[in-house]
Amino acid sequence: MTGAIFGETGKVTEGLYHVDLNQYGMKRLCSAFVLKTSKCLLILDTGTSDDVRALVRFIKRNGWDPANITFIVPTHFHFDHFGGGWKLWKKIMKFNPSVKILTTRETMEHLQDASLHLKRARRTFGDFVGEMIPLPENAYEIVETDTPLDIPGLEDGESFSLVSTPGHVPDHVCPTMNRNGENVFCFTGEAAGTLFHSRKLVTFGTSMPPDFTFKEYMESLEKIIALEPTNAGYCHFGTVMGKENVTKVLEENRQFSIFFKDYVKREFEKSGSVRTVVEKFAAEEAPGRTDLPRADLLVNILVALVYGQLVDLGLKQPK
Ligand SMILES: [Zn+2]
To answer: d(Cα 67, Cα 282) in Å, to the nearest integer?
Structure first.
């Protein structure tokens, strides 16, 4: 399977770059992407406010002019993916006063008032969550989903849009590039699971509380499958390359999602304990699904995934 997954920091394919944000000082945890047209740069996700420096370093190392960054684009409002949006915007503003955060009204509202989200996140991740600070309204360019957007430097036959993909959270979108009718890149964000393996096309879910809904997640996943992307980006982590591989990994996540929901329901009904479900899953299922050196860290994520699933099933109340 080597070659199916691209997890380096660097050029993925023409006009598309991947950045390992080195989140919490760890490799292969969180990704951002850069799309480059003939006239501008689009930054897709930023990581936390502490991760912005990794992005800026990448831009500088490529010799790109920060004044060419026209848009900063979130997949969704969560701190680990766009907690640093405000900080990058402020940095780029000095070079290009017209830089905008290109997003929907719903995501903007979450970003402008992230205090409850940060409070919840700090309970699990402590100070690693960074800061999320509101920006002046003119920092945002509010757009509709599922419609081609006006991006400087797109060639004839190219279009860029934000595909609405709720489920992980209600405001989730997949930034997507089309070329001559082909979907050449879909940043699936957290709408098609996570990939914590560097060689095998095996996924985990993204059923975080309190917003996850299985029904919407599955509908969004079907929508992504129907796009038949040639390359699929993941928030966690990297890019799956080639239509065949992408089809395979999306289908794997569809099956995993159904399996995981049934597993959590069955095991929770047996034991009544989140901890027991997590420990059983971590021992039986998780090892084959990751080759991260610190696989133990996935246990914290698993607690959230199990909890979110139980909230959606009506078996637990959101905390
Ligand atoms: Zn998220």
So the answer is: 46
